[in-house]
Specification:
The structure is a single chain. The chain is α/β, with parallel strands linked by helices. It folds into four domains: 198 residues, Aconitase, domain 3 (2-Layer Sandwich), CATH 3.30.499; 246 residues, Aconitase, domain 3 (2-Layer Sandwich); 194 residues, Aconitase, domain 4, CATH 3.20.19; 41 residues, no CATH class. It is built from 28 helices and 29 strands. The chain has a seven-stranded mixed β-barrel. A four-stranded parallel beta sheet has the order 7-6-5-8, with helices on one face. It has a four-stranded parallel beta sheet with strand order 16-15-17-18, covered by helices on one side. Helix 4 runs parallel beside helix 5 and helix 12 packs parallel to helix 16.
Length: 811
């Protein structure tokens, strides 16, 4: 009810669209994540159509996919070429515009050996992400090969392909082989389809044969036996941390408040609600008192655990001081390092039965030993499709997951995209008032600052079984290979190795709980939707009727004043810097998708229209209204704009030359009123992360004419061009720091008006205000208009104005 109450307007628009346009089908809400639905149902791998020349024959060709989400690459696991593009490009494709792709370099990854016991596909993809991000594959196609593929299930391959954006590749292709056919068979595809895929792949040289595989432009080798259990964080998916190093990783990143353990602090760390001898106090997170209650687990014995070395509780001579709080009549503790959010979420992992069944078995084993999750940990389960809950229920594992708090929250991205919802008020208050650094642990693909939750300053990516384990431990400043998760109902310490399910048991459960009929039942009604979807009123007409009072959907202003002919491109003169940023600025920094703060420009705008904070919803839910989204641009609470006061984070800047501090949105509107063009200056990997077209749309609406960075992520660069914003790149070896730029100069960009060509060198002149000593700096930059098409789009003011002018001219 709440979902439809909040999103009814958007859903009505989709219902109208599928009736107003030919060949548009909508998978209704509550069904799953699009990438998992693609993988489990929609992909054909090889498509066949009647031969237009007649004669009754058919033509077969490879399936392809273009998606407006960067994780579209998940489909590559099936051997289907597909990748994410900006929404702007996709809209142009829908209007008949070709999708252009420069010939990429092909980077091969040759796999050897097998994954060791205890390591999962999540551990593998985190290692791959670290490896390929270090090697540099931005804009490349990655292709996997080698005999190690023989033991890599299709779902494991999908986990790797899904995270292509995290290591920067355009796509991550796997060859078609017997495992591809086995997955198509498991997910209920018809036998004729399997036969066509096999025959076509073998005829066309797409079938994987034994041996090292094809030749590539570049080749990397990876021994699967070297993959160890790990997480990634606390801020970037490429920052892999072995499980054994996590405690030190967290404490190195967040040293403030770390205390040496002594008699006084032993007493302080004793959990409320139970007596524990001082010698083992360090074994327990202060927020997770051990339970000595009788187990409410099922009667049968837990599955066999993976054998491990005999280990007892490890001595830890440091800790963070706990803070007490009252929650539902209980006196609890929380401290820096505590797990505030534990979420099994995202198609990256919920599409993989091995790790999902593993999480359920670990939960069952934990309950059998009497372990519980502390009330201070917010837990959730959000699979990528209904097939997942189908096989978890068949295996009897939904109940133990729910007992530990991992009850079904819905089908969708949820916590992975920042929609975890608020923490309990006493917990949030304790975190804010005591400046605690708490963590989110999730089975997602991104953990950028401020993305998962505004109060979770540390975020770690982990496999679903490890998410459950960290929820039980209650903290991330812990070595789970040496320290216990807690004490069981018998009073003895319980190690992770004691409850980790054996691979043989996982395979047995998969074999008895997953079959083709499960997927056929799930997807037989995939386009129908529930009764709420079917009951939605559908607007009439072939033109959408805009509601001027809506705060969710509005007619966008992108085409206001659009002329039949493009105006000549002119040099940018007298520009000012709106934001001076560092490295790895993500699209989450530029255009957050999560919660809207009441004090923010977007929050104020909503309140002025009678929308209270409880009904703000999220930026992601309000992408249909440009007035909200432009006010949220550069609105991430963890944004570090070097023009703002030192150490100040959030959507702040200064208006120049007077130096008045203001919200970035307010300063941009003031510059627009003054007729001042704007720039953004940044470091490496600008625009990494989601293929969020609003990161470019909002930038344009703020009046930003150019973004000058050391390097760009592929999709965001394309989106900037698509919105008529010039991506400029420093020359190799140069940066804002090396050129002595402060961002307080005024900027002129020469060379745009004359013979603009792909990757043209443009001269930038930065003039220092007289009040700051005067003078100027000249330097060359590269216009990242990478081909003639980019140049044409930029000269039209963006891709959609170019397409609309073409359509108008043709008509």
């Amino acid at each position: 009810e709440r979902e439809y109450e909040r999103n009814g307007e958007r859903y009505q628009l989709l219902r109208w669209a599928q009736t107003a346009f030919r060949d548009l089908r909508v998978v209704p809400p509550g069904t799953g994540i699009v990438h998992q639905v693609n993988l489990e149902f929609l992909a054909t791998v090889v498509t066949d159509v009647p031969d237009p020349r007649g004669g009754g024959s058919r033509i077969a060709y490879p399936d392809t996919l273009v998606g407006t989400d960067s994780h579209t690459t998940m489909i590559n696991a099936l051997g289907v070429l597909g990748y994410g593009v900006g929404g702007i490009e996709a809209e142009a494709v829908l209007l008949g515009q070709p999708l252009y792709q420069p010939m990429p370099r092909i980077v091969g990854v040759r796999l050897h050996g097998e994954l060791p016991h205890g390591s999962t596909a999540t551990d593998l993809v985190l290692m791959v992400t670290q490896l390929l991000r270090a090697h540099g594959v931005v804009g490349a196609f990655v292709e996997f090969a080698g005999d190690g593929l023989a033991g890599l299930a299709l779902a494991d391959r999908a986990t790797i392909s899904n995270m292509s954006p995290e290591f920067g590749a355009t796509s991550t292709i796997f060859p078609i082989d017997d495992e591809t056919l086995a997955y198509l068979r498991l997910t209920g595809r018809p036998a004729e389809r399997l036969a066509l895929v096999e025959a076509y792949a073998k005829e066309q040289g797409l079938w994987r044969e034994p041996g090292p595989g094809p030749e590539f432009d570049e080749i990397l080798e990876l021994d699967l036996a070297s993959v160890d259990p790990s997480v990634a964080g606390p801020r970037r998916p490429q920052d892999r941390v072995p499980l054994t190093a996590l405690r030190d990783n967290f404490r190195t990143n967040f040293p403030d408040g770390l205390l040496a353990l002594n008699e006084e602090t032993v007493e302080a760390t004793r959990p409320h609600g139970g007596e524990v001898e001082a010698s083992s106090a360090e074994s327990f997170p202060a927020s997770d008192p051990p339970s000595f209650a009788a187990s409410d687990a099922r009667d049968e014995a837990p599955v066999e655990a993976v054998p491990g070395p005999a280990r007892g509780p490890a001595v830890d001579d440091h800790h963070y001081r706990p803070v007490t709080l009252e929650l539902d009549g209980q006196r609890l503790s929380i401290q820096t390092g505590a797990v505030a959010i534990a979420a099994i979420t995202s198609c990256t992992n919920t599409s993989n039965p091995t790790v999902m069944i593993g999480a359920g078995l670990l939960a069952r084993n934990a309950i059998a030993r009497g372990l519980t999750v502390a009330p201070t940990v917010k837990t959730s389960l959000a699979p990528g499709s209904k097939a997942v809950t189908g096989y978890l229920e068949a295996a009897g594992l939904m109940a133990p997951l729910a007992t530990l708090g991992f009850a079904l929250a819905g089908y969708g991205c949820t916590t992975c995209i920042g929609n975890s919802g608020p923490l309990d008020a006493p917990i949030a208050q304790a975190i804010e008032e005591n400046d605690l650094v708490v963590a989110a642990v999730l089975s997602g693909n991104r953990n950028f600052e401020g993305r998962i939750h505004p109060l979770a300053r540390a975020s770690y990516l982990a496999s679903p079984p490890l998410v459950v384990a960290f929820a039980l431990a209650g903290r991330v400043d812990i070595d789970l290979t040496l320290e216990p998760l807690g004490r069981g109902s018998d009073g003895r310490p319980v190690m992770l190795a004691d409850i980790w399910p054996a691979p043989e048991e996982i395979r047995r459960v998969i074999g008895t709980s997953i079959d083709p009929e499960l997927f056929r039942r799930t997807y037989a009604v995939v386009f129908d939707g529930d009764e709420r979807w079917q009951a939605l009123p559908i607007p009439d007409g072939d033109r959408y009727a805009w509601d001027a009072n809506s705060t969710y959907i509005a007619k966008p202003s992108f085409f206001d004043g659009l002329s039949p002919e493009a105006a000549p491109v002119r040099d940018i003169e007298g520009g000012r810097v709106l934001a001076m940023l560092g490295d790895s600025v993500t699209t989450d920094h530029i255009s957050p998708a999560g919660s809207i703060a009441a004090w923010s420009p977007a929050g104020k705008w909503l309140q002025e229209r009678g929308v209270g904070p409880l009904d703000f919803n999220s930026y992601g839910a309000r992408r249909g209204h440009h007035e909200v989204m432009v006010r949220g641009t550069f609105g991430n609470i963890r944004l570090r704009n070097r023009l703002a006061a030192e150490g100040k984070e959030g959507p702040w800047t200064v208006h120049l030359p007077d130096g008045d501090e203001a919200f970035i949105y307010d300063a941009a509107m003031r510059y627009q009123a003054e007729g001042t063009p704007l720039l953004v200056i940044a470091g490496r990997e600008y625009g990494s992360g989601s293929s969020r077209d609003w990161a470019a749309k909002g930038t344009m609406l703020l009046g930003v004419r150019a973004v000058l960075a050391e390097s760009f992520e592929r999709i965001h660069r394309s989106n900037l061009v698509g919105m008529g914003v010039l991506p400029l790149q420093f020359q190799p070896g140069e940066s804002a720091a090396s050129l002595g730029l402060t961002g307080r100069e005024s900027y002129t960009i020469h060379g745009l008006a004359d013979d603009l060509s792909p990757r043209k060198r443009l001269t930038v002149v930065a003039r220092v205000d007289d009040a700051d000593g005067g003078g100027e700096r000249r330097f060359e930059t590269i216009a990242r208009l990478d081909g003639p098409i980019d140049v044409g789009y930029y000269q039209h003011g963006g891709i959609l104005p170019a397409v609309l002018r073409r359509i108008a001219a043709d008509s």
